[in-house]
Automatic annotation (TrEMBL):
Organism of this sequence: Rubrobacter tropicus
The protein's name: Uncharacterized protein
Transmembrane segments: 6-24, 31-56
UniProt keywords, alphabetically: Membrane, Transmembrane, Transmembrane helix
Keyword Transmembrane helix among UniProt keywords: yes
């Protein structure tokens, strides 16, 4: 079972901040932003799945 700890959550937040920073800069090629989204999307999806599972554990325990 894959577990997500504080380090992984910090990586998700830093990757998201980097993506927003690059998207707001005018000097960055839009293609680079698209490539970053493609590369980071599995990690973002895993983070969302983790938080959704944590919320479901709280409100609908097995």
């Amino acid at each position: 079972m894959l577990t997500i700890g504080p380090v992984e959550i910090l990586v998700f937040l830093l990757a998201g901040a980097l993506l927003v920073f690059l998207a707001t800069r005018k000097r960055v090629d839009p293609l680079m932003v698209v490539l970053l989204v493609i590369v980071l999307s599995p990690f973002v999806a895993m983070g969302l799945a983790f938080f959704t599972g944590a919320i479901l554990d709280v409100f609908a325990p097995a």
